[in-house]
Amino acid sequence: xxxxxxxxxxxxxxxxxxxxxxxxxxxxxxxxxxxxxxxxxxxxxxxxxxxxxxxxxxxxxxxxxxxxxxxxxxxxxxxxxxxxxxxxxxxxxxxxxxxxxxxxxxxxxxxxxxxxxxxxxxxxxxxxxxxxxxxxxxxxxxxxxxxxxxxxxxxxxxxxxxxxxxxxxxxxxxxxxxxxxxxxxxxxxxxxxxxxxxxxxxxxxxxxxxxxxxxxxxxxxxxxxxxxxxxxxxxxxxxxxxxxxxxxxxxxxxxxxxxxxxxxxxxxxxxxxxxxxxxx
Length: 280
What we know:
Blueprint: E1 2-6, H1 16-25, E2 30-33, H2 63-73, E3 78-85, H3 91-104, E4 109-114, H4 119-124, H5 132-148, E5 152-155, E6 160-164, E7 178-181, H6 187-194, E8 197-199, H7 209-222, E9 231-233, H8 239-247, E10 252-256, H9 262-277
Parallel strand pairs: 1-2, 1-10, 2-3, 3-4, 4-7, 7-8, 9-10
Antiparallel strand pairs: 5-6
Helix pairs in contact: 1-2, 1-9, 2-3, 3-5, 6-7
């Protein structure tokens, strides 16, 4: 099993480049970062975890800018979004960003995506929340055309463009892995249709994770696909939990780090690394 970390990179936390270098030096496979372009002050959408929305949600760096800096400062660390809000981005521009980051990192990008939860945030980008899953699907399919075809075109309800050229192409073939986050209704079907992996957050679904993973793999078999990798987003940093994840076929565990100064984050990062090494 692979091990990585997740942190909101902010304007007040440990620098993302310092974090990336430290994670690589300690043997972590990957570093993923969340995304919020902004947080509408109305706060009509309640925080999914309950209570007040944490400060970091409105202070996070742009993921592609931050991850490009990490890519330039590291050699082996995989970098990724956890998650990129595809429904808040132009798909042609986003396809270029993903391909460019995969290119400059030498094929180290993990494209974690999701539909998001903040309805006002989506609306500010012109996205109707009730349509977000259909919009996300078309944008992912359109981006795959741009990544894999020398002359791409796509004609859908939400994405429509004639024959076009777009380089660079991603280093990873056919494209960086698309990891679909969350566990909302229909998520597993989306993973099987156009995803390369599933990235659930433990505890967000009343059905135990091992049962959901079994359901995913059964859907994959029925669709003629092989086993689909599962990344646990926000894995419990406990030996018992890691053992259970491994037994259920999880391929990657991502540990949360607080968006805090280096003196708080680095000791925790080292403890997580020691835990991961104990299962190597």
